[in-house]
Amino acid sequence: MEIEFIDVLLSVMSLILLAVPGFIFAKLKMLPEKASEAFSAVVLYGCQSALVFTGFQGKTYTPEIGTNMLIVAGLAVAVHLVMIGICCAVTAGKGADAKARCIRYAGVFSNCGFMGFPFLQSVFAGHASLSEIMIYGAVVIAVFNILSWTLGVFLITGDKSAVSVKKIFLNPVIISVVLGFILFIALPAPIVDLAAEGNAGDKILTKFMEVLGYLASMVTPASMIVIGIKLAGCNLKGLFLDKSAYAAAGLKLIVMSLVAMLGVVFLPVSEEIKYTIFFLLSMPCATSATMLAVQFGGDSDFASVAVLLSTVLSVVTIPLMFALFKLVA
Hints:
Blueprint: H1 5-27, H2 35-55, H3 63-90, H4 98-108, H5 112-123, H6 130-157, H7 165-169, H8 172-186, H9 200-217, H10 219-232, H11 236-239, H12 243-264, H13 271-281, H14 288-295, H15 300-328
Helix pairs in contact: 1-5, 1-10, 1-15, 2-8, 2-9, 2-10, 3-4, 3-6, 3-12, 3-13, 4-6, 4-12, 4-15, 5-6, 5-10, 5-13, 6-13, 6-14, 12-13, 12-15, 14-15
């Protein structure tokens, strides 16, 4: 499986172009005030859940894939924990500062759902390994959600009592991962292949998966439209003048990319695992940084700036970090 620099660059650029309609519509006041929140909820709870579930339906379970899923989960956890240590060290002495707490979260957690999954679909479109990569991507998404609602909440608040295990298990994406994985290992074949071709059961299952497929295909355009809307509401001049936002973006886009790179490049694991870990953890700061800052009384304005600035800068950093990845791989 050969991925070239130009493939990565074009994939990033195509995603950014998909954000243009949201930016234009918002600037022209053609969208309601809470449009980004509504779009975000649809993408996160509906479309992304469908994408995660259908990701398990592209292949038949094998012990090798099961082992690789455990490896992906372990590597994803390890990279997050290393980055938490680095971000806490960088912001040492500023424990109670709301902006410092946002830097810790934004420097660790990637926009692996809104931007990472669409990116994987784009850069690996047409590759035979895409279905397997999406399975491993679902594992990374699960790790992200579990760590975000536990260690992530603690980074934002500094308060252990704010951590809610209940929210982890009621998260639609986590439910989709669990349900998709159970069916993946329990069924002898993908859902669409379970019934005899042409009978009523086959038609029902095919239509069911088609509907989920439509929802899953919306993740890429809808998630980038959300980013475009958010960019339109931001003071772009101020966006590029906040030094603390550059610190958060640098930790996320450069330092975490390097940690992810070093975490996989020298290990005897498949290319699918290497690419999944590297790309998903090299994405910009997670949009959940703003959501959690709002919910737990953090510096939500700064969190928004950090997310948007890192998204803009990722157009340059993702291709460049991939070029470095290719050099050392």
